[in-house]
Amino acid sequence: MIYLKDVSYVRLGSPDLESAEAFATACLGLQIAERGKKKLYFRSDDRAHTLCYSEGDAGNQTVGFEVEDDASLQVAASTLEALGHAVHAGTAEEAEQRKVKAFIGFYDPTGNHIELVVRPERSGPRYFASRDAGITGFSHVGLNSTNLLRDERFWTQVCNARVSDRIGDISLMRVNAIHHTIALLPAPNAGIQHINHQVGSSDDVLRSHYFLNEKRVPIVFGPGRHPTSGARFLYFKGPDGMVFEYSVGVGEIENDETHRPRQFGFEPASFCMWGAKPAG
Ligand SMILES: O=C/C=C/C(C(=O)O)=C(/O)C(=O)O
Ligand SMILES: [Fe+2]
After folding, report:
1. pLDDT mean over 48-64
2. Which of 64, 133, 242, 255 has its CA 20 to 30 A from that of 195?
3. Which fold does the domain 135-271 belong to in CATH?
């Protein structure tokens, strides 16, 4: 079993780092942590970085998850290899680029590039962004899935994810007390479907709605409220078509042992209880 503790970071390729930096700082509200060689590191909480843009193809997308220690990483590597996944053992230089002690990389059954990391760095000074979006931290990712049932099995049976809720066969899965850290959404190919940052209050969600509209950032869904986690949300489009979400109030699962996934119908009201509809 692979024991995921939390999501750690997202790495995105972008052919235009200048636009990516402008969006991440002036629109999304992240703090630039470091400018590397053709790399930009951003903070959203007390971690040294939670998002890294590198110059390159926008199809290069990676999600990093934290595991407990080196022993857990070894178990993860052998578990994946036994199942036929090619596993890349990160070099010291690659680990340094990710600000982690060690990591491995592999592809999930859909083909999403995943990294498992040990000891991601924290940062002493607190996160302080130039735009006050009210971000309290990087919280979850939506992952494309070409086969929801197969991929739910991978994340819950090979890894320790537990299903909190389902909308049709879409699954919202937790790896700790937070309602979900991974959402699996149907898509024809691999990719990150959205990147979530939590904000402090509903005011922050609504304030950003006006702010982003003014900046001509395409709003793709919301403001609204998910009946699943209870979160108030806003989804909008960033560079290279990547969708970002702000949300507040994602609930926690009180009793991990006794919680049974709730089944919601695959219908608009299951995505937003206020009646918001996705754009387009
Ligand atoms: O697809 C439904 C989305 C649900 C939630 C939620 O319950 O908070 C998300 O954040 C999400 O997966 O985007
Ligand atoms: Fe989300």
Report:
1. 98
2. 255
3. 2,3-Dihydroxybiphenyl 1,2-Dioxygenase; domain 1 (3.10.180)
Residue 91 has pLDDT above 90, yes or no: yes
Are 64 and 120 in contact by the 8 Å Cβ rule? The answer is yes
Share of the chain above pLDDT 70, in %: 100
**Ligand 1: does its nearest atom lie under 6 Å from the Cβ of 250?**
yes
196 Cα–ligand 1 center, Å: 9
Per-residue pLDDT tens digits for 200-227: 999 999 999 999 999 999 999 999 999 9
- 266 CA → ligand 1 middle, Å: 13
Residues of the chain with CATH 3.10.180.10: 6-118, 135-271
Is the pLDDT assigned to residue 280 strictly greater than 90? no
Q: Is 259 within 8 Å of 162 (Cβ atoms)? A: yes
Side-chain half-sphere of 88: how many Cα atoms within 13 Å? 12
The mean-pLDDT minimum among 29-38, 77-86, 94-103 falls in 29-38
**Residue 106 C-alpha to ligand 1 middle, in angstroms?**
25
DSSP character string of 151-209: HHHIIIIIB--EEEEEETTEEEEESSSBS-SEEEEE-SS-SEEEEEEEES-HHHHHHHH
Write down the ipTM of this complex.
0.94
Nearest CA to 8 out of 53, 66, 52, 51 is that of 66
Q: Give residue 20's region: left, alpha or beta (phi > 0; psi -120 to 50).
A: alpha
State residue 153's pLDDT score. 98
Respond yes or no on whether the N-terminal peptide bond of residue 223 is cis (omega within 30° of 0).
yes
What class is the 6-118 domain?
alpha beta
